[in-house]
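Researcher: We're teaching a course module on how sequence relates to structure. For the next exercise, students receive a sequence and then see the predicted structure as tokens, so they can try to spot secondary structure elements on their own. Here is the exercise chain.
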Amino acid sequence: ANMTTEVGALDKPRVYAGTAPDDDSTRIEGRITGKDGKPMAGVFAVAARVPNLSARPMFVSQPTGEDGRYSLAVHPGGRYFLRVRATFGEGPPQRGALIGAYGGASPKPVDIARGKTVSGKDILVEPFIGRGRGAGDNDGRAKGAGGDPSRPAKQ
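Model: And here is the predicted structure for the students to work with:
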């Protein structure tokens, strides 16, 4: 059923308790590159509490610039797993979309204390090659994404 609800206009932004950080001083920073070492522009770093690549992210960076650098505000501190996506809201990545995870095929957690900045969390991205048999690690990760780049995917 097509229904519309009129909510009016807000005169100024409102922050509801528990929905936004008290400050944005807790950050994870790094650089996103392709396997050739070149910086990747226009991709997003995301943080989730679990290593599963399909988990919903809790925090999303602004798109990277030409230098491939990202700065990801997280609230509060804690343990996060970092991933890279080129787009959001379109379901699983499409074949050829750039993806990656900090730690590659064996995602590594990043531990951060509230109010601190952790730098140097660089992430390698590669084109998504598909799911299932012959798709890299058989779980949707790009072949060699931080793992053994000599391990070819079966096509």
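Model: If you want an answer key for the exercise: The mean pLDDT is 77. The CA atoms of residues 85 and 99 lie 5 Å apart.
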